Amino acid sequence: MKGKNKIYTPLLLSIACAIGLILGARLNFDPTDELFTANPKKQKLNRLIDYIDYEYVDDVNTDSIVDVTVNKILENLDPHSVYIPKDEYARVTENMKGDFVGIGVSFYKIQDTIVVIKAIEGGPSEKIGIRGGDRILYANGKKLFNQDISEDSITTQLKGKVNTKVTLKVLRKGIKDLLTFNIKRGKVPLKSVNASYMLTEDLGYIKIDRFSETTYREFSEAISELKKKGAKEIALDLRDNPGGYLSEAINIADEFIKDDKLILFTKNKSGAIEETYAQREGEFENGRVYVLINENSASASEVVAGALQDNDVGTIVGRRSYGKGLVQREMELGDGSAVRLTIARYYTPTGRSIQKPYDNGNESYFNDYMRRYKNGELNNEDSIEINDSLKYRTPKGKIVYGGGGIIPDIFVPKDTDSEKEKLTFLLRGGYMRQFIFNVLEENREYYNSIDREDFREEIQITDEMVDDFDLYLRGINIGLKRTSETHKPLLKKYLKAEIAQQLFGTNAFERFLNEDDRIIEKVIELSNEKQ
């Protein structure tokens, strides 16, 4: 059966309802409802919470008890069935929507003042001329500086309904009087395609950091632009991509796979199978594609890699992926919280499940990276553990394996340089962000005037800046030794990449980081061999 809709049985819905019962009257369910009163075990949980609420000698936050109870139930199911509390649900949902409504700035709170790091590309603030370094002092006449105000409260002031207006008073260095900006709130994109540019004359590059509601649209725009620039091949970077919406991954796989070829199928508890086939002529069915994966590529990322590998399309390059072959459905619990419940397993076109085992509990499951690291898998292809009983063949006879992630066609080892890994952690963990922001603040007018094309030659990272960064780390109690002379060029590169990020966005940032990247170098080598 063709189609993209997953099958949900009434039994699975009943499970969600049973979990919801634990929350009892706090979720406004009618306790006389036959569905919730017929089962004595459900009544027991409901009564216990009521007893604690009304009879226990001390005041107890039963909301926290409920949260613990729900989490404990889900822990006994599988590692990916999770509870999303009310206070986190809005943030999680917003991140996956691909946009939010607001004025579109990222900011720091510095000395009780809101300072703009960057106006988000495509958002209302960028369009109206707000820049990095601007201090937002008033919003609709409300004072936002020298106030004991949380970031959540600030965000509330700046966000709002679509097309509502907010008047900002802004202090900009070099200008005596406050600037007034009348901004109409609008949709601000949260892009999931972090970068898109040409690696060579023929080879385009697209990096996707997660699969949100807008990923396929962003991807389509990126691939169309790359084709205009002459791209005959695509390097699709899914490294460190944890997954997201399955439908978006399917749409992207469809761009490379010919019509009527199987992309994946899912199987639920009752054994019902839902197959999904390529349905349209894709943008790149006749071009070559390289899919970049690593040990942190999971779920929807593995759907794309597995679909292409099993259809003998393209080349998978990197290291074995995470190994998540479970499908979740998000179910609201009535009080603003939700549960993300596993409702099916997915299988690649050859019929393999790439879900790694979780029989030994969640702790063992999530520590799998350390196991791979210790057994040498990240550095040596021969150390990858495979299960010969889970061997499959693609239509062209290539052997692939199930039971734990996608094994790449071309293996590229992880860099074992521990100091480089520490510097990468500092960059990806945001520790360079505040330091570079302070550097830019020292001469904001100059940095904001730099043209993107002149940036590479004009901005040079000095030894003095490297020394200042070492001092900065010690000041925030990051216990790392001073940067060695051997690694100083790498640190300079990372600091420059962070400047590019704050001035020009993620595309410029990723371009800097990808220089001398082992996996990308391998893809370029493979591309050149096929010319």
TrEMBL record:
Transmembrane segments: none annotated. PROSITE patterns: PDZ, PROKAR_LIPOPROTEIN. Residues 89-159 form the PDZ domain. GO terms for biological process: proteolysis; signal transduction. CDD domains: cpPDZ_CPP-like, Peptidase_S41_CPP. GO terms for molecular function: endopeptidase activity; serine-type peptidase activity. It comes from the Bacteria. The keyword Transit peptide does not apply. GO terms for cellular component: outer membrane-bounded periplasmic space. Keywords: Hydrolase, Protease, Serine protease. This is S41 family peptidase. It comes from Christiangramia aestuarii. The lineage of its organism: Bacteria, Pseudomonadati, Bacteroidota, Flavobacteriia, Flavobacteriales.
